[in-house]
Each structure stands twice: as C-alpha cells, then as structure tokens.
Design a protein that fits this description.
The protein has 105 residues and is an all-beta fold. The chain has no helices and 11 strands. Belongs to the nucleoside phosphorylase PpnP family.
Amino acid sequence: MKEFKNVTIVKKANVYFDGKVTSRTVIFENGERKTLGIMLPGNYEFSTGDKEAMEILAGSLEVRLPGEDRFVTYKEGETFFVPANSKFSLKVNEASDYCCSYIKE
C-alpha cells in the first residue's frame, strides 16, 4: 500500500532518543493504528505492548528480536514482526524510513 486514505493523523510527533527516532501516528476509520517514522543511525532498544509489524520503506537496519542472540538485517521492502509485550534491539546504520502496524490479538 503506497498511501493511506480516510485517516486521522495525530499532529504531535513521537520523539525518542533525543530526536534520533521520530514518528507520526495514523489512525484508520476502523480504529487500526500505525506509525510512520524515520530512524537516524544509532543503537536503540524499544518495548512494545502490542504485536508489531515493522515495514522498512527505505534504508536498512539490524534487528535482534526477543529470544534471539544475533542481529538480522532488514532492508527496503522487508517486514519483521515483534511479539506483544516484549523488547527488541535495533542497529540503524543509515537513515531508515519505516511504517509500524500495531496488531491487536
């Protein structure tokens, strides 16, 4: 999907790690929520309550998912999934554009 239609966008940005990771929240008519953001180079750890699907729109990054002992590289056009109620680590080597979908189960 290249664009979203009939959505509400929250004006205030989500800002993490001193502005090195930012996103905007998009809310769909059915209540589904996504964020669109940019990550600048750095190492980050995130926590999530909901299951997440992280689609890489541009750039690349290395991800260590819960229970894994190694990082896996994801690049433009690829998606990885993060289990609910977990933490995951990122190594971002170049500016990366992403879309995060929050999955209610």
